[in-house]
Amino acid sequence: AFFASKVEHESKHCNGKGFQRPGSSAFDRVYTANQNCGHAYPTFLAVLWCAGLLCSQAPAAFAGLMYLFVRQKYFVGYLGERTQSTPGYLFGKRIILFLFLMSVAGILNYYLIFFFGSDFEMYIKTITSAISPLLLIP
């Protein structure tokens, strides 16, 4: 909602009635940042859901909240110079990778239970719970 309101705000301050506003770099930056965030959102939801369902809910929820804050940082950084958005982008990629690895660990644990009867769920939950605070390190 914040991203959409920023796009609407910039759209109202630009001259012209059409959606295409050539020469408005502020509008272009806001619109592009909104599109980038919108395109990454389905991937985030998929890995968040899989990580929470297959591995551990608490670290997945923590990583999900961190991702939302990082996307906010990315969006605000994109409003300035484009180089200001790079830390938010890289931090977001790291969180998505963490959620993806949690999903893979959950899937591997399922197959270990299915084929060999050995359950490593407690070890995986302990490791992900210990690693998730490291996501705060920039």
UniProtKB/TrEMBL annotation:
The keyword NADP does not apply. The chain crosses the membrane at residues 46-70, 91-113. GO terms for cellular component: endoplasmic reticulum membrane; nuclear membrane. One of its GO terms (biological process) is leukotriene biosynthetic process. Its main location: endoplasmic reticulum. It is found in: Endoplasmic reticulum membrane; Nucleus membrane. PANTHER family: ARACHIDONATE 5-LIPOXYGENASE-ACTIVATING PROTEIN (PTHR10250:SF2), MICROSOMAL GLUTATHIONE S-TRANSFERASE (PTHR10250). This is Arachidonate 5-lipoxygenase-activating protein. The lineage of its organism: Eukaryota, Metazoa, Chordata, Craniata, Vertebrata.
